[in-house]
Structures are given as structure tokens and as C-alpha cells.
Amino acid sequence: MWDYTEKVKDHFENPRNVGVVSRVDGDGQVGSLSCGDALRLTIQVDKAADRIEDAKFQTFGCASAIASSSAMTEMIKGKTLDEALKVTNQEIADYLGGLPKEKMHCSVLGREALEAAVANYRGVPLPQADSPIVCECFGVTEKEIERVIRENRLATVEDVTAYTKAGGGCGRCVPEIEKILQRVLNEGQPAPAKAASEERAPGKMTFLQKARRIEEVIEQEIAPALMRDGGDIELVDINGDEVLVTLKGSCATCPSAKRTLADFVTEKLRELVDESITVKEVRP
Q: Which CATH number is correct for 6-123, 3.90.1010.10, 1.10.3720.10, 2.60.40.3880, 3.20.20.140?
């Protein structure tokens, strides 16, 4: 399971400011359901003071997405628009006591929704609106990638994927991400360079690519085989190389369940995804 802070858990289980403000002055919608994360932020503005009176959100996403959105609304209420726009994705994560690296894109999504809502209120285009899309899978633009590299001092493609999802789908954009990364680093930005041994090896899957491949193998290879004998399997979570699953049907009570996990499920995932994978059963 993800190692969430107590504050992340609190904002996920008891989210603040859910819904739509009573008078929508600014409306920012980012992400999409097809990408797995979608967020709508609405703001109500005191026009005389150019100050955010109220902010509410609606989101489709994981615990980190909900917690980040909830935290952001708490952080920006009462600020002027210019003050709110200075809130960074790292400050959102820090407000929550930190986020897992693979979930940092949720804090970036919140910051982008705020910018979209303010731009909508002011009637101006977003800065990245005219930027070419680099990652078609998740609709991430060149300017968005450049910005997260600079602001968060990113140094690898995996970092960029964790903060934007770019490169985590089909992977065709990875070479372009590498070019952008090197260009920004060569500009003298404060992103720390990492040793060559730490850089992504050619052909190595990103976390999102690996997670998607694990889901495919379980759904297309493992589950159908277990179903033929009256069993089933459900993917619960992925924590690095550890895959958490729940056995169902006849597999749940079978005395050979441990052998099924070790000899079939684990070996199949190692064969078709990554040889370093381990599998752990989680009982409901």
C-alpha cells in the first residue's frame, strides 16, 4: 500500500470544500476520465479586492488526488488571485506532510486547475495553451514538462512521469521528454544531475507502464486460468515491485492457494512483466 501521511488520510476521508461554489466566477477543469484523473475547481471572487472568497472542487481520482484538491482549496481561500497563483505543487504536497513520489502528479493537477480557474475568471488563455503536446496519452504539453522540471528540480524521465504522467502510457514520447530534460538541465537550471547509473536504462518500463502491464497480465492471462477452476483474483495495489492481490472463489479457500501464488501468479508476472516482482495475498 502507499505510505500516506495522517494528513493525506484525513483530507481523503474528510475532504474539505467539495462541490461547486454558489457563484462561479472562475471555472478550471483539467485532466480527463480517460487519463485516470480529472479535476474541476470553481472559485468565487471578491472583485473589489481581487480575492478568493470561496473555492470548491470535484474530482475523479485516487486518494492523493482528493487530498491534494482538498488541501489546495484550504490554502487558497482568502488569498488574492496573484497570491494564490504563487502556490506551488510542492507546497500543496508539503501542506499534506508529503506525497509518494509516484503520486506527485496529483499536486501538479491541483495547481493546474487553479491556474485554469483564474485564467477563466480573467478571460485570458493559459500560458501552455499554445504549447505542443508531447504526451498524447495524457495530454501533457512541452511547457508543462519544462515547468515541473524547473520548479521541482527533476533529473530523470521517471521523475517527469511521476509529476506529470507523461511517458507513462505507450512510451513513444520518452525520447522527446529526454530531449526536453537535457535542454532544461543544460540551461543552467538548478536541477541536480544524477549519475549515469541512476538514469533510466533503455527499454525499462516506467512505474505507470509496469502497473498497466501488471493489470493486463492479471486480467488476460491469470484470471481466466483461475476462473476455469472456479477461482478468481483481484489486483489490490502495486507498491514498487510488490503486487498485492486478493484470491476469490475457490482459490480463497483452497489449501494450495500459497502454491498458486508462488508457482503460477508470481511466475507469470515475472515472465511477462518483470523478473523482480513479488506477490502478496491480501485477505478481505
A: 3.90.1010.10
Beta bridge partners of 46: 51
210-231 residue pLDDT tens = 888 898 899 888 988 888 778 8
Say which amino acid occupies 37. Answer: D
Q: Where along the chain do the CATH 1.10.10.1100 domains lie?
A: 128-198
Please count the residues of the chain: 284
Closest CA to 6 of 116, 101, 95: 95
CATH fold of 207-281, please?
GMP Synthetase; Chain A, domain 3 (3.30.300)
Q: Which grid cell sits at 42?
A: 470553481
- Rounded to whole angstroms, the Cα distance separating 214 from 66 reads 25
The CATH topology of domain 128-198 is Arc Repressor Mutant, subunit A (1.10.10)
- Helix residue spans in the chain (DSSP H): 6-13, 63-76, 81-85, 89-95, 104-122, 142-152, 157-164, 174-186, 207-217, 223-227, 250-253, 257-259, 266-272
DSSP 8-state code for residue 266: H
First vs last Cα of the chain: how many Å apart? 14
Which of the two residues, 83 and 205, has the higher pLDDT score? 83
Please state, as a whole number, how many other Cβ atoms lie within 10 Å of the Cβ of residue 33: 9
* Residue range(s) occupied by CATH 3.90.1010.10 in the chain: 6-123
The pTM (predicted TM-score) of the whole model is 0.61
**Which residues are known catalytic residues?**
35, 106
Q: Is 36 exposed, middle or buried (0-12, 13-18, 19+ CB in 10 A)?
A: middle
